[in-house]
Amino acid sequence: MLDAKTIEIIKSTVPVLEVHGQAITTRFYELLFTSHPELLHIFNHANQKQGRQQAALANAVYAAAAHIDQLETIVPVVKQIAHKHRSLGVKAEHYPIVGENLLQAIKDVLGDAATDEIIGAWGTAYGVIADVFISVEAGMYTEAEEQAGGWADFRSFRVTNKVKESEVITSFYLKPIDGGALPSFEPGQYVSVKVQPIGEEYTHIRQYSLSEAPGKDYFRLSVRREDAKDDQPQGIVSTYLHNHIEEGDQLQLSAPAGDFFLDTTKKTPVVLLSAGVGLTPLVSMLNTLVDYPDRQVIFIHSTQSGNYHAMKEHVQNVVLENNHIRSFFCYQNPTQADRVTNQFDKEGYIDLGWLQSVLPSNQADFYFCGPVSFMKGIYSALKEWGVPTENIHFEFFGPAADLEELVATN
């Protein structure tokens, strides 16, 4: 436990973290990778370059400081990050390294304002916070390894099938090389994939949602190829998987992880909303809900056009075979062929008025995933419609962000 004086000092630094948080975390990563380049085998280099990891860490540090006297209030955030850490292979021995470089980064950015008293308080507080993470993650490692079919760290899988789902999304079907059983998982969870593309000095790890329901003898990952754009580089791992991994090749996978998943204990109606590759965890949920005929399910997917619409035929077949499931498709820029076949329900973007026209009420559990702009729009619409916060469930692909804060500041 922290004494009152330490808590007082930490809380006094909250305004400073609001201003300098991202500068501190940017400096932290510079120091970390200079002194321990081996950690580049774990961290997402693209998120580093785009500043997303720095922003996520700054938010986490700020939250820890603001709630230092009530750390139990940030347990959900701790668990979310811990799932990521477990799937990446972050271990207890990494925490002292992180602490040392974080304190040095605070000194470097704040200069004389970082007094010995402040650094000492942060050192003590970091130790307490690190112990919380280490304890939670230790439990997750144990659970992942000891569950039926489970394992620790990474396991070798063989690609048994590779299926092009759309212009940019390809599915990879994977079975363990050791021939052993697979663990169950919660529909919506992800695995980490570790690869070392040709010409790359370090291994690269990415999380991809499992796009099939649990209980199969294979895992399925449906990966979007991230081509270079004006504001972001080409995706190293996604393009490697699309262009170089073929049937018969091997991939290293972590055990399933993640805190975004379908609550199968509830009886409420379910609305699944996705855009682009954000449909992957929701298809896992959809395929699971086939076995829950007492729950009304509406699946809504938004994409650019029919050329980019992955798993369309599968979803249509699920709807035809299950009376409790309906689906709607929204195309932002439908092609002429799309207009001729008329197999989409809305042109443009999903908005509140349209949602209210196709949904019987707001009395449902809403799950959504997709690009940040899509998620901001859906979140705003649901809040405006009066959907209770506890019925709103979402996941960011990449470092977590505060969606409510993103909506409020844009």
Topology diagram in text:
Blueprint lengths: L3 H9 L1 H22 L9 H6 L1 H15 L8 H14 L5 H17 L5 H31 L7 E11 L4 E8 L13 E6 L8 E6 L9 E6 L11 H9 L5 E5 L15 E6 L3 H11 L7 E7 L8 H10 L3 E7 L4 H6 L4 E2 L4 H7 L6 E5 L2 H13 L7 E4 L7 H6 L2
Parallel strand pairs: 7-8, 7-11, 8-9, 9-10, 11-12
Antiparallel strand pairs: 1-2, 1-6, 2-5, 3-4, 3-6
Features:
410 residues; Elongation Factor Tu (Ef-tu), domain 3; Rossmann fold; 3 domains; 6-stranded antiparallel sheet; 6-stranded parallel sheet; 12 strands; 43% helix; FAD binding; oxygen binding; EC 1.14.12.17; heme; NADP
Structural class: alpha/beta
Give the N-terminus to C-terminus distance in angstroms: 39 Å
Most strands sheet: 6 strands, antiparallel
Indicate the low-confidence ranges by residue numbers: none
CATH fold description of the largest domain: Globin-like
Order of H and E elements? HHHHHHHEEEEEHEEHEHEHEHEHEH
How much of the sequence lies in strands comes to 15-25%
Number of domains: 3
**Name of the CATH homologous superfamily of the largest domain:** Globins
Any idea what the radius of gyration is? 22 Å
What is the CATH top level name of the largest domain? Mainly Alpha
Pfam family, one: NAD_binding_1
Protein name: Flavohemoprotein
Organism: Ammoniphilus oxalaticus
Active site: 95 (charge relay system), 137 (charge relay system)
